[in-house]
Protein 1
Amino acid sequence: MVSAMPHQTAPALSRLEQQIAFIVEIDKLKLVLRQTRLMDGSRRENDAEHCWHVALMAVVLAEHAGAHIDVPRVLKMLLIHDLVEIDAGDTFLYAAVDPAAIAARETRAAERIFGLLPPDQADELRVLWEEFEARDTAEAKFARALDRLEPLLQNHRNGGGTWVEHRITVEQVLAKKHLVADGSAALWAFAVALIDDSLSRGYLRTAAREPSR
Amino acid sequence: MVSAMPHQTAPALSRLEQQIAFIVEIDKLKLVLRQTRLMDGSRRENDAEHCWHVALMAVVLAEHAGAHIDVPRVLKMLLIHDLVEIDAGDTFLYAAVDPAAIAARETRAAERIFGLLPPDQADELRVLWEEFEARDTAEAKFARALDRLEPLLQNHRNGGGTWVEHRITVEQVLAKKHLVADGSAALWAFAVALIDDSLSRGYLRTAAREPSR
């Protein structure tokens, strides 16, 4: 971080230098493209703007959480939840992947990226990310629900988006999106209505409708 | 919001419908381009990813605030601070503009955009936005400091960016960035070091160095 912190001889600045190194590094999240397109369909969304959107969704939708939640904790979790994708890349929700390989890649990414921060902050954000991944707490369940809901809203608005592109079935969507129910019954009811509507609009197909061969 | 909430006859859903209308509308913030380019210089930043970045900066840099701050309030403020630009557009910091005309445009935008939400939430976010604009509270001062610091980091990293493009002087930058000092003495010291370094790299010019005519 020499170039960003030119007068770095004063030891008192070294904590700030580490923080700035992290802040500069995470700019790269804006370059990680997701599969889903924006609601107007004009281009693919990037991880940074996705993180902003789900964080603001948490502010607005907190009252629908299925349990009492610490909203500031959810906000922090959503702001950092995709940082590992700077190194590990985005994985399409319906891709056939080896979860262990992805987990290993993301764990190495977490080491490196959170490790840019002073140790206390590195630990704090690492714990938040692990909590999000483990989905054991009310905060993580709600955060994960929003993370699944946003692309569903996008596909519904932009004419089917990645569902049409990858010939996704309603059964696949229901299976993948069902964890919204763990975070919020109200949001799950809403998600099911959107999925039903997407089926009736032809954005989604049913497995049963596939011709048998 | 008929298309986003197909089964909307149940009155119990109408609060959620309003919230979803807001969440769908704010996707447009991803299409509002700022003047500043990303740290790698590859493209201009958009407002949504900027809001994500400054919110996460608040998480990491909160300890440097000049006064005790309510961090969750700062986070919410930063997440919503640019929403009015969906209607009013982004204004370049060094542009010669009529502040009253911009303020009027942004006030109308706030009416419309926050007005999509249920009234209690519309009021809450509107108050937060006005607090950010007024810059009277410790939270607003810190949030505004981060909002000024992020593009400074970007211009310093991407070879001078908008400073070079618009032939900005160090005096202009110091005048516009000085409000960082109101939010944090430590971050202002850091900003001054970056500005000094930018001058020595030729990213900024001094007014005195301009040839007299």
Protein 2
Amino acid sequence: MSNSIGTQFVVTSFGESHGRCVGVVIDGCPAGLPIGLDEIQAEVDRRKPQSSAGGTGRREEDRVEALSGIFNGRSTGAPICLLAWNKDADSSAYSEIISRPRPGHADYTAFLKYGKYNDFRGGGRFSGRITAGFVMAGAIAGKLLAQRGIAIIAHTVQIGDVKSDPHPSHITRRYIDKTPVRCADPAAAKKMMAAIQAVQKDADSIGGTVEALALNVPGGLGEPVFDTLEGELSKAFFAIPAARGVEFGAGFGAAAMRGSQHNDLFSVKNKKIVTLTNHAGGISGGLSNGMPIIARVAFKPTASIGKSQQTVNLKTGKKVDLAVKGRHDSCIVPRAVPVVEAMMSLVLCDFALRAGYIGRIIS
Amino acid sequence: MSNSIGTQFVVTSFGESHGRCVGVVIDGCPAGLPIGLDEIQAEVDRRKPQSSAGGTGRREEDRVEALSGIFNGRSTGAPICLLAWNKDADSSAYSEIISRPRPGHADYTAFLKYGKYNDFRGGGRFSGRITAGFVMAGAIAGKLLAQRGIAIIAHTVQIGDVKSDPHPSHITRRYIDKTPVRCADPAAAKKMMAAIQAVQKDADSIGGTVEALALNVPGGLGEPVFDTLEGELSKAFFAIPAARGVEFGAGFGAAAMRGSQHNDLFSVKNKKIVTLTNHAGGISGGLSNGMPIIARVAFKPTASIGKSQQTVNLKTGKKVDLAVKGRHDSCIVPRAVPVVEAMMSLVLCDFALRAGYIGRIIS
Amino acid sequence: MSNSIGTQFVVTSFGESHGRCVGVVIDGCPAGLPIGLDEIQAEVDRRKPQSSAGGTGRREEDRVEALSGIFNGRSTGAPICLLAWNKDADSSAYSEIISRPRPGHADYTAFLKYGKYNDFRGGGRFSGRITAGFVMAGAIAGKLLAQRGIAIIAHTVQIGDVKSDPHPSHITRRYIDKTPVRCADPAAAKKMMAAIQAVQKDADSIGGTVEALALNVPGGLGEPVFDTLEGELSKAFFAIPAARGVEFGAGFGAAAMRGSQHNDLFSVKNKKIVTLTNHAGGISGGLSNGMPIIARVAFKPTASIGKSQQTVNLKTGKKVDLAVKGRHDSCIVPRAVPVVEAMMSLVLCDFALRAGYIGRIIS
Amino acid sequence: MSNSIGTQFVVTSFGESHGRCVGVVIDGCPAGLPIGLDEIQAEVDRRKPQSSAGGTGRREEDRVEALSGIFNGRSTGAPICLLAWNKDADSSAYSEIISRPRPGHADYTAFLKYGKYNDFRGGGRFSGRITAGFVMAGAIAGKLLAQRGIAIIAHTVQIGDVKSDPHPSHITRRYIDKTPVRCADPAAAKKMMAAIQAVQKDADSIGGTVEALALNVPGGLGEPVFDTLEGELSKAFFAIPAARGVEFGAGFGAAAMRGSQHNDLFSVKNKKIVTLTNHAGGISGGLSNGMPIIARVAFKPTASIGKSQQTVNLKTGKKVDLAVKGRHDSCIVPRAVPVVEAMMSLVLCDFALRAGYIGRIIS
């Protein structure tokens, strides 16, 4: 039980994969923000299975509706409830997972926690589908950040063992959305596509890594010692199903570095204090330092694969083989890109409100 | 501002590197737990500079005192205040960092957030010294977990480019504390020592990685969708100064794996459901699955190095060179081992209380 | 911004008086609780204008729908979203309050906080209508409490200067709902009805007091020193529009008492420790003592009256007279009775979960 | 377990009546506030037994020390730990309450919650002594409020059945501290003194009521719908041992009023919008309206009385008589005055920070 995140921009998630809807309540959006449902819809559409490579054949319509908090096209300061009604849900394929948990899925742990009452249909609360709600909330957070010039952008940097090496100027949404894998490096993107097709042929799946950047973040955001930028961002990223690792700046690579290499030297550029390198990923002491914030999130391969796998029948206690039916993503990484953006937007928006950098009325 | 962590086992940190003391208030410890200050002291002593390789020449006495919450040798249910008075603090070396922030340190970001009022002496709130308080709280959390048979253990798995490959049976505190780098692989430990000595000779520093395990954790701990085990653990780990990355199970390696490789197949062992591999690191859907929880935390090299580095004089706006004086760790990784253990203990204790797995009175 | 209440049983409110709906998300309901919408509907129906004396002529249909968290007729452990779509909303009467705030209403303070973006229609978020959502959540909390034998009951004890003096055995829902003012003392109820009719004739309104009792509460619930039973209950009661005072046990009367009168002496009854009197209202040191919990909430007279009143035109800064149109309650006290019950249920359910008195799976 | 209060100005209380100390950690104080220990000491001294009528013969020295968060005489933005070491504690009188709970005290409920591990000496955590820490924190909150011109003042308005009727211009600290009962009406103060002496002669105690005002509060503070001004203030007031009721403005008296009487009509004074009366006590819709905030807190008579009272021996289950030894206040109301001020300061400071009305750096 913990379906809310944030302290000043509080997002409460509800809904299940095959229930009536997936939605969020956003508490703390300042009054006066112009909100068009089409803008939110555009973000949610980027998360759809058919919008990128590796997605399933499912068609999710995900038409976003606003139930509260918006009046005359603007936020009122009241909680904003957004949701999308579920459609195209075929629960029949899931009946057997009640007693036979799928390897790599949360079926077994959900059973341990909620007993037989867990809504297992389509993964219920543990389905990637609930991230559609995260994206709705992220769209509003992103609009608030944009009011202060802060931009968030994410892109695929690895699928399988293919890594991207994009030109920095190509890390723009226009460029990223050109490739079906949301990679800013066209050559790598082709190889990533090939890697996905290879696992599809084998009824298998593959993992990858997403990088997220926050640009134009003012210095001093973050609330040490426990609500650090890294701490809150990583907590938010790990709410995305399949996330297995989070790092900032030089990240795990920093372990092999010397201080004289890793330390970012200070300098002055256009009368502003900058660092000559950005191994810190824009964060020092848990606080933003004014340089771009850089985070990477590693995703495991999709748990659902067509291959037969060993599990245990919870009723009999015997080992059984299970082939997961239904349509599944062979690689969720490209679809995770807008979700990573959303989580980063939520967290930075919360910190900007905590610091008073975004005010209580937008006018 | 956010010096508390936890929901049921709430730890509030206070104190500065060169202030009067470093301490914690622990709110939520069940009544009746036998608490000996010597046990807490033993944990705090493991964090001392002189207790492991790479530490400074500073002598920190860190005598732990209990100010509240303990009566007749047991917790009462009231908040427990623990602290260690500061000694041996030489603040003179820090006077120049007010205007000349040290590269890699939080001096500049602290200035951005708190202005000229920040207590910069010895890094103030951003010093690794405040983790002494985390270890005090972790010692109590660890005792509570031990009541239910849960054991937490951490060890160094990488320093520089030296990685350990310990025999699983050697991952015990007795074995780990045998080497000054807290590595369970004696051969790797020697190479790690050499790596540290090499950077010391160059007045430089080096990073590394710590792995933490939680054994005998019951299934179903964790509070999805936002308070996942990974999310809360990573948030806690990132409160340790110098942490740059956190991963679970296969972690970043999962990005290059296929689902058929990564999925942990279910099996039955001694009538208990287990998985044949543990790429999930004991966590599925944000919930513990009964297998060992495995996390790794990457640390950057110590920011303080003897070499001269470029910074900016905040008053004049001009570039200047700065050589950081004072005694510093050339590698904080061995000292981070007990801190990583403490943070894992705090988080798991909180989840065990949330789930009712630890009761409100220990008898 | 703070539309969530509770720590373990967290209720998030959304919706406006004349928006699309009024609803709640309930996070923390244990899995396995049988939930019938008809039971929730029955509670919500008690709050309807036409269900008691003093209500408006408005017909609110308030058909409760469940959007999430219920599967096969039982809670799943996931967040439960409940709402009622709004109908019969005539916003035209409210257009003039944008610039001319109604005396006694929140129009002016909402303007101060949210500026011109506040949804003023029908009072928006400040309308008593949002308490319909509180009652939905309270119905579920009440069911959880009932599982452990805890019963919550509220009744009108004062309207205007008429006070009730019910026979203790009459404080039952069956008896209370017999009178249109929800008073357990039939003689007083008649006088209360007369008092309401008198103010209605004058196009005026009248206040009153509601008493709430919690029976069979185990000893030791409450979380001192700040989350006392009194503190959390009063905070919840003050979320009901028009509440002006809260007291427990002897309450304000205790100010005039001596210790020898007020102290409840301990005794033994049926081998259980009881107190001979209950001036403490079942709470000592912020903790339940096993005796009935007794709270009283004073409500001001409805702010909306037919009489012309002086206000200020916010645009011109000039004094103007305003006659509030629309249909309004002349006395909201009888309708507040189920809301007071709901708030008490929410708070006690939260404390019962915090203490582990209600488990995480109901079976 | 809940020893923290506030969201932006978070106060964590620790310490026991007869433990080593009583203290607080304050998290969220903006950087740059000049803090003199003498100012805090002056507030704490007002709470001392010997500083007002009705107090005990105990001498509490209560010398306030600062352990962290202050540097060069100003707050740094880091958590501020303040405490007073305990002295003059004679625990011998309390040994018998382990098994024989005192009527009117929390001995029995603490036993229900914490079992035999509760620190019963002098009431432990349930003693009024812990409010010394509240006053330390309130002193800092009061200084922050004063920076923005907000003033908090409390005074005794009732002791026993004696009520005060002060001239509004006499409600100043100078005037209030002139009388040993902290009453702004000298004639009533004399009668209150007589009432206290009467109960002292009888080895009895007496209750009373404190009124608190907040002046110059800007409009729009408060966070509906759950974190209302009334809700948070009442929660804070009920953390004061012996508080039994809280009301705002007309309070319980509003129950007997008509809307046409109670509604505060808007007017214009010096180009500012005001209300002609202040039955709302400065709060509408949970938000401040710019008029003085007025709250009243009713206190029960001190539970400790010299008279013999019936209790139950928890070990034998038999009724026994108990005469509470030790030195006790015959009326705690005058000593509660600075505590009520402190709680109001804490809450308003928190709301002012939430609204951004007090900034993050004071310069």
